Amino acid sequence: MRNGILRQPMSVWATAFAAVVAFMGIGLVDPILPAIAQGLHAGPSEVSLLFTSYFLVTAVAMLITGWVSSRIGGKKTLLLGLALVVVFAALAGTSGSVSELVGFRAGWGLGNALFVATALAVIVGAASGGAESAIILYEAALGLGISLGPLVGALLGDWNWRAPFFGTSVLMAAGFVLIATLLKAPPRPAVKTRLSDPIRALAHGGLSTTAFTALFYNFAFFTVLAFTPFILGMSAYGIGAVFFGWGVLVALCSVFAAPLLQRRLGSVTVLHIALALLGVLQLGIAASGHGAGVVVFAILTGIPIGICNTVFTESAMEVSDAPRPVASAGYNFVRWMGGALAPYLATKLGEEAGVAVPYLVGAVCCLIGMTILYGRRHHLRGLRRVDVQHAVVA
Question: Minimal CA–CA distance to 173: which of 109, 111, 83?
Fold first, then answer.
């Protein structure tokens, strides 16, 4: 199977490259958060709104992605999303205040939603080796993008905090050209997606269970990503190095550890283990407070985060009978709300109640996620089919 993942059409690689750059936008600002706060005379919680506006718009826009792509086609939707990111990433680099930067990140989030939701469907449709290989490839792009984001942010941000935004705009423009020239327009679906379809899809017990568990998981995830740079006490290079190491673990565990564990233990059991581990590591960060302990525990969170990313995505795509783009839109609408809420709330809690509190809340969110999984486990019986397929492929 691993060789099958690598043997893909050029159109898939072009889409995957653009996806890497798109996901770079998530961690790109991590190393430069303190520099942005200093340069724009803002506090940590104000700067954290860069994440909140980005993911809030991304979450809401997920509800229209299927409606748009079923009318103008997958390729045009990808190109529209990329064009919006190119424009708003460049505008973000020109910001003169935090409010301007937050607004431009919101526009960036709209483009990101159109691209990311459609990219997954396009990769699944065009990739060789079936849905499992396509999802692993997509999660590899996510992990690689998340790991490279902090590194690029540190390298460019050391020169000027505006540079990473302009750099992302240029890279996304390259992705636009690649997709425009290499991707053959996939056929439009026979039935156009209604605006209400993603919400209707969440009526399925398995999809709603997966989505709301992922919401609490994402709260814990983005507590680590958004708040930790403020307590590391490092330069942009130091923060970038920490989150590069973290991102490498995310990528490796997404591609290698998650499928292996699914084959041996089953998807639901793997999610329980990964959420428990993430909760324990959050408690480790809370107990460390500052220094080397925070660095070690923060990097190690990449292990359960990488596993969760792959298993949650595959579960959302396979647990219901909804078309994959519709299921993906409904699932992402709910789960990205966790990414929208966590940065501001965690940073505000850190400012008001102490640096350990956000991680304690993150650990509680992991426990809530595990409770949802257990209490609604009968809705996830359909995932046994996915686990059997993993075992057969092995």
Answer: 83
